Amino acid sequence: MDVYLVDTPGFGDSGGAETDISNGMSIVKSLLGCESIKLTVILSRDELYFNKMGGTILMSQVIANLFTELKPVLPSMSIFFNKFYS
After folding, report:
1. What residue ranges in 1-86 does DSSP mark as E strands?
2. Which uninterrupted H or E stretch holds 77?
3. 79-to-1, 25, 34, 36, 38 alpha-carbon distances in Å
4. Taking Cα atoms as reference points, which of 66, 43, 64 lies closest to residue 55?
5. For residue range 25-84, what is the model confidence (pLDDT) as tens digits?
6. Structural domain boundaries of the chain?
7. Diameter of the chain measured on Cα atoms
């Protein structure tokens, strides 16, 4: 079994809407060639507290748009939080 770790491009970065569309199309094309996927999302404390979750909301919309039905994907999805201090 081959395993590939992929860091996808960001969305809403300084590249503009054209770059977001191109990145999204490339991600979908790559996913269609996979036998299975494990989606991992990493959220930072700064994103949640200081950015008012703007990036998280956008990322959620992108993920929802990648799949025709999200419910079957949820068991294969992991969410991690970083930069949280005890």
Report:
1. 39-44, 77-82
2. strand 77-82
3. 24, 23, 21, 18, 11
4. 43
5. 887 888 788 888 888 887 777 777 777 767 677 777 877 877 788 888 888 888 888 877
6. 17-82
7. 41
